[in-house]
Amino acid sequence: MPRSPYRPARLRRAFFRGSDAVRAGLLTPDQLRGQAWRKLYRDVYVDAAVPVSYALRCRAARLILPGGGALTGVSAACLDGVPIGEPDDLVHVIAPSGTRWERRGCRLTRTPYLPADHLVPGELPRTIRLRTAWEIASARNVLEAVAALNVVFRHQRPSRRAMDPWVAADPESPAARAIDLADPLAESPQESRSRVLLVSAGFPRPTSQYELHRAGRFVARFDLAWPEARVAVEYEGEVHAERIGRDRMRLNRIHDAGWEVFFLTKEQLREPARFRIFCDQLRRALARNRAYDK
C-alpha cells in the first residue's frame, strides 16, 4: 500500500512560500515538488487537498505582491464577496509607476498615484469598491468590462449610482463609457455582451429582463426588449434552447400578443458576418413594428 505524502501540520490546508518552508526545515526541495502540493505562482504553493478557486489565488497573491501594491479590479471584487472570477483567470494587481514586477497568472497595472484612502486596510491590500469598479471599467475589452461591472453593480459593491462622481470627473474616458453601458439587470455575461454589441451597432438601448403581461397575466420575460416596438431579443444558450424546445406554446403566446422575438446565438456574437445579418433582421423588425404602431 503506497504511503501518504508527507504533509506537516503547519502547511495543511494552507498556502505558503516554498522557499520559507524549505528554509524552516518543514519540507525538502524534493518533497515540495511532490504530489502533496500544488503550485499557484512561482515559489507559492498550496496543499493539494485544497480546491483551487479564484478567491484562493487572490488571497495567496498577498505573498508575492510588490511594494506598494494591492489587488484591484475583479480580484478585489472577488475578495469583497462578489461571485466573480474563474480559477484560471488573471489576478489583477495595481502598483506605483516604475514598479518592476511580473508573475505568471497575474496582470499588473501601474499608476502614478494610489491614494491611501483608495485602499482597504488589512493584511491583504485591495482597492476600495469605487476604485475597484473604476479599474474593472478601464479594461481594454469593453465587453468583458461591462459583463464584470454588471455583476458588481447587481451586488451593490458599489452601486451603479455611486460611480456618478467618477464618471463626471472623466466623462470621455473608456471607463466612463463602460460604466454608462453597464446594466445590473443583466443576468449573464453573454446577455451583457449581447446588449453592448447591439448598442454599439447603433440600436436604441433595450430594456433588460422585460416582463410581458397581457390582460393582467404574465406571458414571458425577455433578456432584452424594445417594448414600444414589441420586439425582443434572447440569447440562445443551452438553457434557452432546452426551454424553447419544451414549450413552443410560449412562442405562440408571444406572437399572439403582437411581439416578435429574435434569438441571438453564440456563433452570431462571435462571427461579424453573422452578427451583421442578425442586426439587419432586427432593424427591419423595429422599423416594421414602429410603423405599425403609427
TrEMBL record:
Lineage, uppermost ranks: Bacteria, Bacillati, Actinomycetota, Actinomycetes, Cryptosporangiales
Q: What is this protein called?
A: DUF559 domain-containing protein
Q: Domain of life, per the record? A: Bacteria
Q: What SUPFAM superfamilies does this protein map onto?
A: Restriction endonuclease-like
